[in-house]
Amino acid sequence: MSKLVELPLELVTEILKWLNWRDILYARSACRYLSEATKVRNIWVHLVNEHVLANPHPPRFERPIEAYSSQELEHLLFLWKSADRGLEASTLYPSRERTFVGVKTGYGMRTGNGPYGASDKLIHLIKGGRWLLVVEQTGAVSCYDLDAETISGVRLIPDQMEFTNSSRVLMTLDYATHSPILEFTIALSLQDAALWEEPSTSIRYRRTVQIWRVGVALDDIRHAVGLTATFLASFPHRPEILGVMSLSLLGPMIAFTSITYEKKYAFVVDWTQANGNSLEYPWRVVQRTMSQGYIHLLPGSRLLVTSSDSFSLCDYSITPETTSLPDSPHYSFPVIWQVKGYTCRKGSGCFLTKNTARIVLGSKSSLITVSFNNSFVSHELPDIVPLPPGPSPLFYAQTFLGHKYIIAMDMSGYMTIMSYTSPGFATPGNPTDVFRKCTLFNIPAACEPHLDEDSGRIVYVIEQRKWGVVDHTQFAVLDFAIVFKQ
């Protein structure tokens, strides 16, 4: 019998409405009919499309919807609907929990315990929750299928440089939002020399940006069996760039914050123009920033830049392209607006609707939501809402910042899930039901949480290092969607 009879009552009611049943009182005959009705693919296509259209940040299909069977569409809808139910339950407990061993992540901006902790720039849970990407210190990218019965890694991108203690790599993604199926672009910033090493003194000196296009590999019966990566472009970092701290990618534009000889700046480069070996490509020096800042490219030639005590929205199209740094240390950068008095060392993606852009910014101890007009460039200051303070000064140190949920991990054995729709979460209040805790058994070794909100899947790192450096990373996978309950 179909899972339909196991669905929540409101979902069954939706199906019955669409089928235009005149008499729901005949429950037994209706259930028998519905068991057969699940074989009618058009019903599930309608319900899946309805769910996608009603979602401001809709889930993505791995492959064309025409390639999904009726049973696969039924599973997708049940997964999406039951994921919210599992994540919003008053008593949080995963439906399924697994662990697996993957490659050792590279060195990036550390978020784990100690100097060999995980990096928030090197682990990405791809939208949909099936694929996990992990970057090594050599620039290699491995892909893990989290839907597989036995989770193992496949090299998506091979080694791009030799392993050294000075090697650094950062990765960022840009989803092809106008594509009907899963497709995205990867940007890698590679560095195989320490910050203080000059090109003339390091025979292995290399600081490079690479761009790769990633799509889904289908087998003969149009089932997704893996990801494929195609190299698109590369260009060298200019000699002024000593180290890169953060990346953002949007279409042909890449932005990064960097240490230079004099200051720390945010730059924007058109990678389609910079592609090649020349060091004379143009860039835009958009803003001064800090070492552990945050940047995010937005549509409409806008860039959000954070600093040690402020954050700004810039229109980089009015910043002239150049091949040098600003002449004067007191050079004034134009901004659309600037807000002072906030330390923003981390940030979420930018969640866009037709009229509004919303982003979460903050530090280890506090978070704010920042909302501003998305329909046109406005100099009006954004709306800022402080989120509830955590129970400890470092409560937000290990966080995932999503569209609907925030995940925080602490050192006392708990993972806390907070919903933006919880009472008081939209205001500075702090009601007790905002913080819903889930007990973990591998804290304080847990760090770097990632959540796919559509599938209700959480992945986090279990630190392995105790007295030495290990050559692997262990991951935990938690599924909160009710579909995985045994």
Automatic annotation (TrEMBL):
It comes from the Eukaryota. Residues 1-47 form the F-box domain. SMART domains: FBOX. This is F-box domain-containing protein. It comes from Psilocybe cyanescens.
